[in-house]
Amino acid sequence: MEMTVHLCHSRGRMAPDTSTRKPPINWPTVLFIAATTLAALLWPLYAWFAGVTTGQIVFAIAYYLATGLGITVGYHRLIAHQTFKAHPVAEAVLVVLGGAAWQGSALEWTLDHIQHHLHVDTDADPYNRRRGFWYAHIGWLIRRETLDHRRRIPPFLRNDRVVMLQHRYYVPLSVVTSLLIPFLLEGWGGLLLVGAVRIVALHHTTWFINSWAHTGTKRPYNPEVSAADNWLLALVAFGEGWHNYHHAFPSDYRNGVGALAWDPSKWLIWSLSKIGAAHDLKRMNPAVVWQRRVEATLAYRGPQRTRENLVDATRRALEKLARRSEARLAALSAATAGPRAAGAADLAELRRRISERADEWRRSRDRRALARARRIEDLIEQLTLYRDLLTRISSASAC
Ligand SMILES: [Zn+2]
Ligand SMILES: [Zn+2]
After folding, report:
1. 33-56 pLDDT, tens per residue?
2. Taking the model in full, what pTM does it have?
3. What is the pLDDT of residues 303-327, one digit of tens each?
4. Which of 35, 49, 328, 394 has its CA 20 to 30 A from that of 204?
5. How far is the CA of 116 from the centre of ligand 1 (A)?
6. CA 388 to CA 354: how far, in whole Å?
7. Running DSSP on this structure, what letter comes out for residue 86?
8. Do 253 and 84 meet the contact criterion of CB atoms below 8 Å apart?
9. In angstroms, how far is CA 203 from the centroid of its own chain?
10. Can you list the alpha helix ranges (DSSP code H) found in the chain?
11. Which ligand has an atom closest to residue 127 CA?
12. C-alpha to C-alpha distance for 284 and 262, rounded to whole angstroms
């Protein structure tokens, strides 16, 4: 008989009528959280008497980063949302690292997370923020359904050998990687710091995504859900703090969509793609993102003040983008003897001149000029879209 200890993620789901029946207490999870928390609290005392080595500190920080990225890149963006494809070796490494964070197997984690996205802010959401901050943070882990989730494993998980193998050997693998190795390499101090302190810190970092990232008012892409963008959380949680964008576009491999938005998880995925360990990275088209953002803002029927703030923030962001596109267009069009694009008529004239000269560049095989022409056409398209959206959003703010 297969026996699996489920830590941190449930097998089942709360039925919508939770008022009628309380799920049982999940003792393995409760005892694990209590034991690791106690051990983490004892570490300073241990360090005071026994000392702490540089090796232990470096090991703990490196392991914190590696296992945290195992969760965000491996469990979350690769397995749960399939935002990119990975070489099986890279997938196995990411998933084993994720397991060392003790948040359940990738399979269990994903089954919960799918329900979270499908039923966010309802009783069918395992970490429903509407039931309170602490419920979404840790309370949901305490009482768990024990339904047999194997009946509802979707094919994309069932057919993933790495996921199914990790699920089968999750406990021994995680004991070895997160407890035994630190103990063998760094003794009791290593076990307490790399095992307990690192696990507890990582638990709360992840749980903050369910609690803190569902608290706040920065909800530019979908104001109807509790998921909010939070730069501070993005900073500590490997880029996962851009949670409103993530709930609006969960199939995008990025959570921080701006080029400079802090998102180490997206940088790691991009880097993996450069060495051939990842491919098929999914990105939302900026035109779709901005169209959706403006539509969501205009459709928002919540408090007037929130609506005004949303309209204002969206307008300012679009103005900034339009200014940036104008500057790039001016710089590029200067080299083509076209008009310095400003108004819609100038853009049409610039587009006409570019297409007129494209044949000439094609004949002379002037690749640089052709690439520049393509870039100009893209910029004209973007700028036209931003201006259209600005007109729509400005007329809404005038109402
Ligand atoms: Zn969420
Ligand atoms: Zn997600």
Report:
1. 999 999 999 999 999 998 899 999
2. 0.84
3. 888 888 889 989 998 999 889 888 8
4. 49
5. 7
6. 22
7. E
8. yes
9. 16
10. 27-50, 54-69, 88-99, 106-118, 133-134, 140-142, 155-158, 161-168, 170-175, 181-190, 198-210, 231-236, 243-248, 264-274, 286-299, 304-334, 344-363, 367-398
11. 1
12. 18
CA dist 318 and 324 (Å) reads: 10
Q: How far is the CA of 210 from the centre of ligand 1 (A)?
A: 6
CA angle 196, 81, 297 (to 5 degrees): 110
Q: Which residue has the tokens 């560049």?
A: 361
Could you tell me the two tokens for 7? 């830590």
Token pair listed for 43: 């570490």
Calculate how far, in angstroms, residue 244's C-alpha sits from the geometric centre of ligand 2: 10
Instruction: Burial-class residue 175 by CB neighbours within 10 Å (0-12, 13-18, 19+).
Output: middle
The single residue listed with the structure tokens 């241990």 is: 46
What is the C-alpha to C-alpha distance for residues 157 and 149, in angstroms, rounded to an integer? 12
Residue count of the chain = 399
C-alpha dihedral over 236, 240, 245, 248, to 10 degrees?
-150
Q: Quote the CA–CA distance of 324 and 64 in Å, as a whole number.
A: 38
Single-letter residue type at 131: R
* Choice between 109 and 151, residue whose per-residue pLDDT is larger: 109
C-beta separation of 40 from 196 below 8 A: yes
How many whole angstroms from its chain centre is CA 145?
26
Angstrom distance (rounded) from CA 352 to CA 380: 12
Q: Which ligand is nearest to the CA of 227?
A: 1
